[in-house]
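Hi all, posting the design record for the shared folder.

TITLE: backbone redesign
STEP: 1 of 1
STRUCTURE INPUT:
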Protein backbone atom coordinates (compact mmCIF):
# COMPACT_ATOMS: atom_id res chain seq x y z
CA UNK A 1 0.00 0.00 0.00
CA UNK A 2 1.26 3.47 -0.84
CA UNK A 3 -1.33 5.41 1.08
CA UNK A 4 -0.69 6.81 4.52
CA UNK A 5 -3.59 6.68 6.92
CA UNK A 6 -4.33 9.00 9.80
CA UNK A 7 -7.23 8.95 12.29
CA UNK A 8 -8.44 12.00 14.20
CA UNK A 9 -11.04 11.69 16.94
CA UNK A 10 -13.14 14.71 17.93
CA UNK A 11 -15.08 15.15 21.16
CA UNK A 12 -18.16 16.45 19.40
CA UNK A 13 -19.76 16.19 15.97
CA UNK A 14 -19.52 19.98 15.65
CA UNK A 15 -15.74 19.79 16.03
CA UNK A 16 -15.55 16.86 13.63
CA UNK A 17 -17.55 18.73 10.99
CA UNK A 18 -15.61 21.96 11.44
CA UNK A 19 -12.27 20.19 11.07
CA UNK A 20 -13.50 18.32 7.99
CA UNK A 21 -14.77 21.52 6.36
CA UNK A 22 -11.42 23.22 7.04
CA UNK A 23 -9.54 20.26 5.59
CA UNK A 24 -11.69 20.33 2.45
CA UNK A 25 -11.05 24.05 2.03
CA UNK A 26 -7.28 23.55 2.36
CA UNK A 27 -7.27 20.73 -0.22
CA UNK A 28 -9.46 22.80 -2.55
CA UNK A 29 -7.14 25.81 -2.32
CA UNK A 30 -4.11 23.65 -3.05
CA UNK A 31 -5.87 22.02 -6.02
CA UNK A 32 -6.86 25.40 -7.46
CA UNK A 33 -3.37 26.84 -6.97
CA UNK A 34 -1.69 23.91 -8.66
CA UNK A 35 -4.22 22.70 -11.22
CA UNK A 36 -6.96 25.35 -11.43
CA UNK A 37 -9.75 22.90 -10.63
CA UNK A 38 -11.00 20.97 -7.58
CA UNK A 39 -12.52 17.54 -8.26
CA UNK A 40 -14.61 16.72 -5.19
CA UNK A 41 -16.49 13.44 -4.65
CA UNK A 42 -19.48 13.64 -2.30
CA UNK A 43 -20.87 10.75 -0.29
CA UNK A 44 -24.44 9.82 0.53
CA UNK A 45 -25.95 8.79 3.83
CA UNK A 46 -26.92 10.94 6.78
CA UNK A 47 -23.45 11.59 8.26
CA UNK A 48 -22.35 14.25 5.74
CA UNK A 49 -25.58 16.28 6.04
CA UNK A 50 -24.16 18.70 8.67
CA UNK A 51 -20.97 19.00 6.63
CA UNK A 52 -22.89 20.03 3.51
CA UNK A 53 -24.85 22.55 5.59
CA UNK A 54 -21.61 23.93 7.03
CA UNK A 55 -20.03 24.31 3.58
CA UNK A 56 -23.12 26.17 2.39
CA UNK A 57 -22.66 28.88 5.05
CA UNK A 58 -20.00 31.56 5.59
CA UNK A 59 -17.07 31.42 5.97
CA UNK A 60 -16.87 28.30 3.75
CA UNK A 61 -19.57 29.39 1.31
CA UNK A 62 -17.50 32.48 0.52
CA UNK A 63 -14.03 30.96 0.78
CA UNK A 64 -14.53 27.83 -1.32
CA UNK A 65 -13.67 28.15 -5.01
CA UNK A 66 -17.10 26.92 -6.10
CA UNK A 67 -16.86 28.07 -9.73
CA UNK A 68 -13.97 25.69 -10.34
CA UNK A 69 -15.17 22.92 -8.02
CA UNK A 70 -16.45 19.91 -9.92
CA UNK A 71 -18.75 17.58 -8.01
CA UNK A 72 -18.86 13.81 -8.41
CA UNK A 73 -20.55 11.15 -6.29
CA UNK A 74 -19.12 8.07 -4.60
CA UNK A 75 -22.36 6.20 -5.06
CA UNK A 76 -25.98 6.67 -5.94
CA UNK A 77 -29.23 4.84 -5.35
CA UNK A 78 -31.25 3.96 -8.43
CA UNK A 79 -33.98 6.52 -7.87
CA UNK A 80 -34.73 9.75 -9.75
CA UNK A 81 -32.83 12.88 -8.65
CA UNK A 82 -35.90 14.40 -6.97
CA UNK A 83 -36.50 11.23 -4.85
CA UNK A 84 -35.76 11.68 -1.14
CA UNK A 85 -33.34 8.74 -1.29
CA UNK A 86 -31.19 10.31 -4.01
CA UNK A 87 -27.67 11.18 -2.87
CA UNK A 88 -27.49 13.84 -5.57
CA UNK A 89 -30.86 15.21 -4.42
CA UNK A 90 -29.62 15.46 -0.82
CA UNK A 91 -26.48 17.33 -1.87
CA UNK A 92 -28.58 19.68 -4.02
CA UNK A 93 -30.92 20.56 -1.17
CA UNK A 94 -28.22 21.00 1.50
CA UNK A 95 -25.40 22.52 -0.53
CA UNK A 96 -25.47 22.81 -4.30
CA UNK A 97 -28.60 24.93 -4.67
CA UNK A 98 -27.46 27.24 -1.88
CA UNK A 99 -24.05 27.94 -3.37
CA UNK A 100 -25.56 28.12 -6.87
CA UNK A 101 -23.24 25.43 -8.17
CA UNK A 102 -22.80 25.57 -11.93
CA UNK A 103 -24.80 22.93 -13.73
CA UNK A 104 -21.82 22.07 -15.91
CA UNK A 105 -19.81 21.29 -12.74
CA UNK A 106 -22.26 18.61 -11.52
CA UNK A 107 -21.24 15.15 -12.66
CA UNK A 108 -23.97 13.09 -11.12
CA UNK A 109 -24.74 9.40 -11.39
CA UNK A 110 -28.02 9.20 -13.28
CA UNK A 111 -30.26 7.30 -10.87
CA UNK A 112 -33.18 7.54 -13.27
CA UNK A 113 -31.43 5.12 -15.68
CA UNK A 114 -31.11 1.36 -15.28
CA UNK A 115 -28.30 0.35 -12.88
CA UNK A 116 -26.12 -0.86 -15.74
CA UNK A 117 -26.96 2.16 -17.89
CA UNK A 118 -26.13 4.57 -15.05
CA UNK A 119 -22.87 2.76 -14.25
CA UNK A 120 -21.73 2.82 -17.85
CA UNK A 121 -22.73 6.49 -18.32
CA UNK A 122 -20.74 7.46 -15.19
CA UNK A 123 -17.75 5.28 -16.15
CA UNK A 124 -17.58 7.01 -19.52
CA UNK A 125 -17.60 10.43 -17.90
CA UNK A 126 -14.77 9.35 -15.60
CA UNK A 127 -12.76 7.98 -18.53
CA UNK A 128 -12.92 11.45 -20.09
CA UNK A 129 -11.74 12.94 -16.80
CA UNK A 130 -8.90 10.42 -16.65
CA UNK A 131 -7.81 11.35 -20.19
CA UNK A 132 -7.79 15.03 -19.20
CA UNK A 133 -5.74 14.59 -16.04
CA UNK A 134 -2.49 13.52 -17.68
CA UNK A 135 -1.27 11.31 -14.83
CA UNK A 136 -4.50 9.28 -14.49
CA UNK A 137 -5.52 10.90 -11.21
CA UNK A 138 -9.27 11.42 -11.15
CA UNK A 139 -10.12 13.22 -7.94
CA UNK A 140 -8.59 15.67 -5.47
CA UNK A 141 -10.75 14.51 -2.57
CA UNK A 142 -13.12 11.59 -2.14
CA UNK A 143 -15.46 11.85 0.84
CA UNK A 144 -16.67 8.46 2.08
CA UNK A 145 -18.96 7.19 4.82
CA UNK A 146 -18.94 3.84 6.57
CA UNK A 147 -21.88 1.56 7.34
CA UNK A 148 -22.10 -0.36 10.60
CA UNK A 149 -21.60 -3.50 8.45
CA UNK A 150 -18.37 -2.02 7.07
CA UNK A 151 -19.59 -0.97 3.62
CA UNK A 152 -18.25 2.20 2.10
CA UNK A 153 -19.69 4.00 -0.91
CA UNK A 154 -21.72 1.01 -2.17
CA UNK A 155 -18.88 -1.48 -1.78
CA UNK A 156 -20.46 -4.06 0.50
CA UNK A 157 -18.86 -6.95 2.39
CA UNK A 158 -18.72 -10.13 0.33
CA UNK A 159 -16.93 -11.42 -2.67
CA UNK A 160 -15.62 -8.76 -5.02
CA UNK A 161 -16.99 -8.57 -8.53
CA UNK A 162 -14.40 -8.94 -11.28
CA UNK A 163 -15.69 -5.67 -12.78
CA UNK A 164 -14.47 -3.85 -9.66
CA UNK A 165 -10.94 -4.30 -10.94
CA UNK A 166 -11.74 -3.16 -14.47
CA UNK A 167 -14.38 -0.41 -14.41
CA UNK A 168 -14.57 2.98 -12.72
CA UNK A 169 -18.22 2.45 -11.71
CA UNK A 170 -20.41 -0.63 -11.33
CA UNK A 171 -24.00 -1.54 -10.53
CA UNK A 172 -24.62 -3.35 -7.23
CA UNK A 173 -27.56 -4.49 -5.21
CA UNK A 174 -27.57 -4.60 -1.41
CA UNK A 175 -29.96 -4.06 1.47
CA UNK A 176 -28.98 -1.64 4.20
CA UNK A 177 -31.21 0.24 6.62
CA UNK A 178 -34.27 0.06 4.37
CA UNK A 179 -32.57 2.24 1.76
CA UNK A 180 -33.01 1.70 -1.99
CA UNK A 181 -31.20 -1.55 -2.79
CA UNK A 182 -30.17 -0.95 -6.39
CA UNK A 183 -27.14 1.27 -6.56
CA UNK A 184 -24.17 2.39 -8.60
CA UNK A 185 -20.81 2.80 -6.91
CA UNK A 186 -17.33 4.00 -7.72
CA UNK A 187 -14.93 1.07 -7.68
CA UNK A 188 -11.70 1.01 -5.65
CA UNK A 189 -9.94 1.41 -8.99
CA UNK A 190 -11.55 4.87 -9.31
CA UNK A 191 -11.41 5.87 -5.62
CA UNK A 192 -7.74 4.98 -5.45
CA UNK A 193 -6.99 7.49 -8.19
CA UNK A 194 -7.49 10.25 -5.67
CA UNK A 195 -5.11 12.61 -3.91
CA UNK A 196 -7.03 12.49 -0.63
CA UNK A 197 -9.66 10.19 0.82
CA UNK A 198 -11.66 11.31 3.87
CA UNK A 199 -13.79 8.86 5.83
CA UNK A 200 -16.33 10.83 7.87
CA UNK A 201 -17.84 8.55 10.50
CA UNK A 202 -19.88 9.11 13.65
CA UNK A 203 -21.89 7.02 16.10
CA UNK A 204 -21.19 4.11 18.42
CA UNK A 205 -22.85 1.62 16.05
CA UNK A 206 -19.91 2.20 13.68
CA UNK A 207 -17.15 1.77 16.29
CA UNK A 208 -16.35 -1.86 15.48
CA UNK A 209 -16.43 -1.27 11.72
CA UNK A 210 -14.08 1.69 12.19
CA UNK A 211 -11.68 -0.35 14.28
CA UNK A 212 -11.68 -3.28 11.83
CA UNK A 213 -11.39 -1.01 8.81
CA UNK A 214 -8.40 0.84 10.23
CA UNK A 215 -6.51 -1.78 12.20
CA UNK A 216 -8.28 -5.11 11.76
CA UNK A 217 -6.77 -8.14 10.08
CA UNK A 218 -6.48 -7.43 6.37
CA UNK A 219 -9.59 -8.82 4.69
CA UNK A 220 -10.71 -7.26 1.43
CA UNK A 221 -13.99 -9.15 1.38
CA UNK A 222 -15.13 -8.59 4.95
CA UNK A 223 -13.96 -4.96 5.25
CA UNK A 224 -14.34 -3.08 1.95
CA UNK A 225 -12.39 -0.09 3.32
CA UNK A 226 -9.29 -2.32 3.05
CA UNK A 227 -9.70 -1.98 -0.73
CA UNK A 228 -9.10 1.76 -0.45
CA UNK A 229 -5.44 2.79 -0.74
CA UNK A 230 -5.05 5.84 -2.97
CA UNK A 231 -2.06 5.43 -5.30
CA UNK A 232 -0.32 8.65 -4.36
CA UNK A 233 -2.63 10.02 -1.74
CA UNK A 234 -3.54 9.80 1.89
CA UNK A 235 -6.50 8.62 3.93
CA UNK A 236 -7.88 10.75 6.74
CA UNK A 237 -10.36 9.21 9.14
CA UNK A 238 -12.41 11.99 10.76
CA UNK A 239 -14.26 10.39 13.67
CA UNK A 240 -16.44 11.49 16.50
CA UNK A 241 -15.67 10.11 19.97
CA UNK A 242 -18.28 7.34 19.67
CA UNK A 243 -17.07 6.06 16.29
CA UNK A 244 -13.44 6.17 17.45
CA UNK A 245 -14.13 4.61 20.86
CA UNK A 246 -12.57 1.19 20.14
CA UNK A 247 -9.51 2.42 18.28
CA UNK A 248 -7.04 2.56 21.10
CA UNK A 249 -8.29 -0.40 23.07
CA UNK A 250 -6.53 -3.76 23.03
C1 LIG B 1 -25.14 5.62 0.64
C2 LIG B 1 -23.74 5.87 1.05
C3 LIG B 1 -23.20 4.94 2.06
C4 LIG B 1 -23.18 5.68 3.40
C5 LIG B 1 -23.18 4.70 4.55
C6 LIG B 1 -23.28 5.39 5.88
O1 LIG B 1 -25.52 6.03 -0.43
O2 LIG B 1 -25.89 5.00 1.42
O3 LIG B 1 -22.93 6.61 0.32
O4 LIG B 1 -21.96 4.40 1.82
O5 LIG B 1 -22.08 6.53 3.46
O6 LIG B 1 -24.29 3.86 4.40
O7 LIG B 1 -24.54 6.00 5.97
P1 LIG B 1 -24.92 6.94 7.18
O8 LIG B 1 -24.03 8.15 7.05
O9 LIG B 1 -26.36 7.31 6.96
O10 LIG B 1 -24.68 6.17 8.41
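Okay, here is what came back for every position:
SEQUENCE:
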Amino acid sequence: MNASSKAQIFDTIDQQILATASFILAVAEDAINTRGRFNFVLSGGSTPAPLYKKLALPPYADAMPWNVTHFYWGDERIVPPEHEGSNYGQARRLLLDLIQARTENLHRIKGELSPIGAASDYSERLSTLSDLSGDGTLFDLVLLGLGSDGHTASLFPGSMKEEERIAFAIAVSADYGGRPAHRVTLTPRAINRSRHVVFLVSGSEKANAVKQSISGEFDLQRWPAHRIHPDSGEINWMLDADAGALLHTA
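COMMENT: The chain has a mean pLDDT of 95.
Let me know if anyone wants the other runs.
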